[in-house]
Amino acid sequence: MTTLTITASLLSGCGEGPKAEPLVIGEVAEWPVASVPRISVGADTLDLAHELAGVSSARRLAGRLVVANSGAFELRIYDSTGKYLTTVGQKGEGPGEFRGTLFLFPAQGDSLYVLDSGNLRYSVHDASGKYVRMLDRGTDALVRPTWLYRRTIVESNVPGQAPRWAVAVLERLPDAQPGAPVRRARFDNSGLLWVTDSVSSNRWTVWADSARAVARVTLPPGLALLEAGTDFVLGVEHDAVGREIVRAYDLTRSAPLVFPPPAAEPFPLPGNPAAEARVKSHLRNLVVAQEVHYGEHGHYTAAADSLVIKADSDIEVLILEADGRHWAVVLYERTSKTTCGISIGFPPPPGWLDGVIVCGR
C-alpha cells in the first residue's frame, strides 16, 4: 500500500483566488501487472508478413484483438490468444477503405468506431472487424475523443463524454513545474481515470472520484498504453531494432470498488476565447518557425529554444515529438490555464487531425 499526499488548488468561494490545501489520499493499493505478456503480436512472431507498421490504436473486443495497423491502412484481427485471423481494409476512399492514421473506439454492443484521419470520417465495424456502415457528417459525427485540460492530454473511451468528477480531479492536481512532461490521463473500461505525470516512468494513479485515488499501477517500461481493461492492460512496445509489438499483460485489481464510478455524461469544457486566440496565434507562429528550422537543418526540432520565433514568457512550449518528418506540440498559458496543441505529420493523439489546432482549458 502507498500513502499519497497531494497539494491541491481549491477554489474556496466566488471571486477568491485559489488556495493550496493538502489533499491526503491515504492508503492506495498497488495493482500489479504481470511481467510476461498474455498476448504478443507483431515483430516477435515467426511470420514476417505479419509485422506491424504504424500501430496507432488497439482494442480487445468480443474475445478478439483488433489492431489499427495504420502504416498499411488496415485493421489486423487476432483471436484471444494472439493468433492471426484476418486483415480488413486497404488504402483507398471507398467503403471499408482507409487513407490515414486510424483510431478505434467502442460503439454499442460488440461493435467499433474507426476514425480515419485521412478520409476524415468515422466507420462502424462489427466484432469481426467487418465494415458495416459510414457515419454521416464526417469527423463531426462524434465529438473528439481526446481533449486538453490544464496541461493534460485526456483520452476518453466515449467521445465527448466524461464524468464531471474527472474534471475536478484534473483541476485539483498540483500544477506541474515548468519543463515537466505533459500530463497524460485516460479512462479505463470501468470508467476510472488513470493519470500519469510521466509516460517514461509509466507510473499511473487510478482515480474513482474527485476525492478518492484507489490504486497505483506501474506499466512495463516502454509500453505505450492503448487500453486498460478490467484484468488487462494493452499497449504497443518496440523491440531492439524499432519494430512494433502489441502486447496485453494481466492486471490484478486488489479489491472491487465499494462505490462504482458514476455513468459518463456529456459536459461542456469551459473555455477562454481571448486566451485561446492568443495561444493559437503562438501555435501558428511556431509552425512557421519549425518549417524554417526544417529548411535550414533538414529536420524538425524538439528544442523550442532553437527556433527563431519565441513564445511569450507566460506560455510554456512542450514539444511532444520531433524528427525528420513529424512533430507535435502543446502550448500552455499559465494565467488562464488554456492548453492548445497541434500535430504535423506525426500520428496525433486519438481524434486529432493532422495540422488542426485543438484547444481546451
Uncertain runs: 2-24
Major beta-sheet overview: 8 strands, mixed
Q: Class by helix and strand content?
A: mainly beta
| Mean residue pLDDT | 84
As a whole number of angstroms, the C-alpha radius of gyration is 21 Å
| Binned strand content | 35-45%
Into which percent range does the helicity of residues fall?
under 10%
Give the overall shape.
globular
Count of DSSP helices? 2
Rounded to the nearest angstrom, the distance between the terminal CA atoms is 33 Å
Q: Which strand order do you get reading across the main beta sheet? A: 1-2-17-16-15-14-13-12
Count structural domains.
Answer: 3
Count of distinct strands = 24
Order of helices and strands: EEEEEEEEEEEEEHEEEEEEEHEEEE
Quick rundown:
The chain has 361 residues and is mainly beta. Helix content is 9%, strand content 40%.
Summarize the structure in words:
- A hairpin with a 6-residue loop joins strand 1 (2-11) and strand 2 (18-30).
- The protein has an eight-stranded mixed beta sheet with strand order 1-2-17-16-15-14-13-12, with helices on one face. A four-stranded antiparallel beta sheet has the order 3-20-19-18, with no helix packed on it. The protein has a four-stranded antiparallel beta sheet with strand order 4-5-6-7, with no helix packed on it.
- The model is unreliable at 2-24 (pLDDT under 50).
- The protein is mainly β.
- It is built from two helices and 24 strands.
